[in-house]
Amino acid sequence: MNKPIAAIVGVGRTDFGEFYERGYMGLALEAGTKAIECAGIEKNEIDGIFIGSFLPEITENQGLISSYFAEELGTNKPIIRNEAACASGGLAVYNACMGIRSGMFDTVLVGGVEKLTNKDATSSLNIAMSNEERQYGFTFPALYASMALRHMHDYGTKREHLAMIAVGNHKHAKDNKHAHFRNQITVETVMNSQPIAYPLTLFDSSPVSDGAAALVLVKPEFAKKFENPIYITGSAYVTDSVGLYAREGTASKESENPFAGFTSIKATKLASEKALEQSGKTLRDIEIVEVHDCFTIEQILALEDMGFCKKGNGGNVVEDSFDNKSSHIVYKTDYGEKIFNCGGGLKADGHPVSATGVRQFVECYEQLSGISGHPVYKNLGKMPDYALTHNIGGTGAAATVHVLEIC
Amino acid sequence: MNKPIAAIVGVGRTDFGEFYERGYMGLALEAGTKAIECAGIEKNEIDGIFIGSFLPEITENQGLISSYFAEELGTNKPIIRNEAACASGGLAVYNACMGIRSGMFDTVLVGGVEKLTNKDATSSLNIAMSNEERQYGFTFPALYASMALRHMHDYGTKREHLAMIAVGNHKHAKDNKHAHFRNQITVETVMNSQPIAYPLTLFDSSPVSDGAAALVLVKPEFAKKFENPIYITGSAYVTDSVGLYAREGTASKESENPFAGFTSIKATKLASEKALEQSGKTLRDIEIVEVHDCFTIEQILALEDMGFCKKGNGGNVVEDSFDNKSSHIVYKTDYGEKIFNCGGGLKADGHPVSATGVRQFVECYEQLSGISGHPVYKNLGKMPDYALTHNIGGTGAAATVHVLEIC
To answer: Are B63 and A71 in contact (CB < 8 Å)?
Structure first.
């Protein structure tokens, strides 16, 4: 194992869903309290808190959110707010890793929280795209639809491939008691559901969810004091243009394929290369992967951009791996069999924006440590030892990738 | 010298003022470019960027600001947004120091930027107070006025003391070519100006400014390669309740003096103790101090809370040090003579929120390295070797304090 960066020693999360009767702070406190209890530590052992939260100024009309937490918790310790749109949770983990590596913190709480049902989520989320995109009337569903269409055009990806991703993620949420949607669906359900932005339908889209997730991270030297430590051995964060049209390989820039930027997310590619290099692992080692499937097309892009298959071949991997009868979809990638989005991903587990990037670690921690209520090991044929999390902001304007290993 | 955390090797800033014709990004780029030129490095030597910005979602209708910068700069490097209301600039420096200490970054650009004249600033800034305070109709001027009134009631602080602070800060801005206000004022100007919230008038209040400031920070081992390196040897960030009424020693909590929390900012006290301890310096060593004088009363609170004089004696220090004829006000503190707010502070240099916490470092760097256009050394009798910066968010819900030393 390469030098570990930090160890996860406790996790907690709320249910994800539409909780009109619950508040932002209550959700955050539930997740944080559970993570602290899971780690078996006292609150005062926490040196600092890293909170991922994208929209509190809009959904809560509350800024200075770090001190809003200080008030609730009655602490003067450093509480650091982390924001990179939908990658705010992943950024919180990245920054917490930085804090631990700096020697300034031994034990930190990392949280992600969002309360989306207070406001019109789509228009609130619009501020994470470029002004030009907003001016021309784009929404995030429309931007991802344009990516899906181009992928279908360039690589022959079928509408059914997208639908199969949704079906698979709903399968994985079936036994996840915290998931927003545990109902089982078919390819037909997805294809015949309400159109959102062609080719994407309602069932291609992650839901508007409320929720929170939290981790206790400690410096590696502390790991062995805990029951189920899981190491983070790779941590990368990469930025790119906020506007999809302004990236490398899009129509606005010279390129061999002037639309390649619509079918590939460079930030995903760079971040996963960096995190894997740091961890000394390859895609072959990775057994479970939590990807940012805000829309079904994004799971195909992630599969390709991280290199699990060749560019353009993601739809075929999905089709070849699809098994309607199995409880899990095991992707047959160029580097072996992997399970993606073990608890349902953003699509079925839910997507309370900043909670998502932290929730991915909760999922991996529970799978790797064997405490998950919806374990994937039977379908993998063994207990997984290695996991990867992938969280993006906007249409790929930011990406965080982390590699996790059992101690 | 205790172990240095990082070295400042280049600084840049824009003019501060009401720039209706200038944009957010243009201001940020001007400051960043100047800092890079000042350091004499190439852009591609920068490993990462830490941006302090509080209100882009509101004033620019732009979120995911990190990637907005990535687009402008054409980079995929980590760009991290830092937000703690008016302490966002100080937090950006604190987090950049963390980044350097972590070993993840050797050379970083730290920026602070705000464009306040796009919107009604007072109501935009209101989101940095607690919901309860807003519901009862408070604004920040009103909250600071309540602190000023209580200080006058408990300690006999005079209205004139507050005015003298404004006069002194305008004196210091006289030769600061970047300052929002370089005009010279009198105690009468302040006392007879437009009432804002009794006892504070227009001239007790920092202005609504646009502007940006930036630093190039490198790891200590790199410092000697540069012409004028200045070390950061202490870096602290402390949080407290977002609501003033909810802090220790306010009416809502049991306390010997049930109003002590209105006349003292605990976050300032804790952060300055921590930063000084880290640096191995005492208040006696510090020669120049940049404090967060968003309203004149706050300069008195900072003087007392950092321990330059006893609680309640700040007004007397100001009166005893006041010299209408001198170009600078030299405070006669319990730990020797100090110059506060060398370039005019928030009051006269201006207060483009998140730029402020970074601008304080620009000021100290220029004073310590001897390149300032408005040097204070003649009034100190020597070139200063040690400086301290103090930046707060809300009414003291967050505070950052840093100690700077010449190499």
So the answer is: no
In the numeric block, which tokens belong to residue A370? 């064997």
CB contact under 8 A, B243 and A71: yes
Angle at which helices A140-155 and A296-305 pack, to 10 degrees? Answer: 60
Q: Assess: ipTM above 0.95.
A: yes
**Residue A315 and residue A156 in contact, taking contact as beta carbons nearer than 8 Å:** yes
Residue B361 near residue B93 (C-beta atoms within 8 A): yes
CA–CA gap between residue A64 and residue A46 (Å, rounded):
21
Pairwise CA distance, residues B144 & B347, whole Å: 14
**DSSP character at residue A224:** G
Any B CB within 8 A of A202 CB: no
Looking only at the bridges linking them, the beta strands covering B398-406 and B230-239 are: antiparallel
**Smallest CA–CA separation between B155 and chain A, in Å?**
27
Nearest neighbour of A64 by CB, restricted to B85, B95, B238: B85
B30 in reach of chain A (CB within 8 A):
no
Nearest CA in chain A to B243: A71
Chain A stretch 75-114, residues whose beta carbon is closer than 8 A to a beta carbon of chain B: 75-85, 91, 94-95, 98-99, 101-104
User: Least CA distance to A278: which residue of chain B?
Assistant: B104
Q: How many CB pairs under 8 A join A and B?
A: 170
Q: Is B161 a catalytic residue?
A: no
The H or E element containing residue A319 is helix A314-321
List the pLDDT tens digit at each of the 407 positions of chain B.
Answer: 889 999 999 999 999 999 999 999 999 999 999 999 999 999 999 999 999 999 999 999 999 999 999 999 999 999 999 999 999 999 999 999 999 999 999 999 999 999 999 888 888 999 999 999 999 999 999 999 999 999 999 999 999 999 999 999 999 999 999 999 999 999 999 999 999 999 999 999 999 999 999 999 999 999 999 999 999 999 999 999 999 999 988 766 666 777 889 999 999 999 999 999 999 999 999 999 999 999 999 999 999 999 999 999 999 999 999 999 999 999 999 999 999 999 999 999 999 999 999 999 999 999 999 999 999 999 999 999 999 999 999 999 999 999 999 98
Sign for the pseudo-dihedral over CA of B133, A119, A51, A22? positive
Is the Cβ–Cβ distance between A41 and A107 less than 8 Å? yes
Burial (CB count within 10 angstroms: exposed 0-12, middle 13-18, buried 19+), residue B361: buried
**Which tokens is A242 given?**
């906020």
B21: CB partners within 8 A, 6+ apart? none
Mutation choice for B interface testing from A239, A240, A266 by most B CBs within 10 A: A239
**By C-alpha distance, which of B325, B292, B323, B289 is closest to B308?**
B289
Query: Contact at 8 Å (CB) between B385 and B287?
Result: yes
Cross-chain residue pair A84–B61, CB shorter than 8 Å: no
Quote the CA–CA distance of A402 and A276 in Å, as a whole number. 8
Task: Kindly provide the residue ranges of all beta strands, DSSP E only, lying in B200-319, ordered along the sequence.
Answer: 200-201, 210-218, 230-239, 288-290
A302: Cβ–Cβ under 8 A, 6 or more apart, which residues?
Answer: A265, A268, A291, A292, A293, A390
The reported pTM is: 0.97
Q: What is the number of H-type helices and E-type strands within chain A?
A: 14, 13
CA distance B27 to B10: 17
Tell me how far apart the alpha carbons of residues B222 and A259 are, in angstroms, rounded to a whole number.
Answer: 42
A131–B contact, CB cutoff 8 A:
yes
Contacts of B394 in chain A (CB under 8 A): 64, 67
Active-site residue flag, B364: no
Cα separation, A339 vs A400, whole angstroms = 19
